[in-house]
């Protein structure tokens, strides 16, 4: 037996839930990500990397997409090239 025909407001409930997830004023999707999803993403990404601790700290402060891009860059060009990029970014930041 289906439960939703017995609940005539089901369409409105779905609308409210979707609005809560999507609209920036409610920030529902970010809430779910921060409180439920992120802990699993951190466990998966921290167990798969074998970078030094200083790299791990920097990488974990980034968004997931940025983290993956940095990991690909380090894998492709090596940690020394990543250090050069960081130093160049620090020099540019000091200029401004």
TrEMBL record:
Keywords: Membrane, Transmembrane, Transmembrane helix
Subcellular location: Membrane
Mode of membrane association: Multi-pass membrane protein
Annotated TM spans: 12-33
Database matches in InterPro entries: TB2_DP1_HVA22 (IPR004345)
Superkingdom of the organism of origin: Eukaryota
Broad class of where this protein is predominantly found: membrane
GO CC annotations on file: membrane
Family to which this protein belongs: Belongs to the DP1 family.
Protein's name in the database: HVA22-like protein
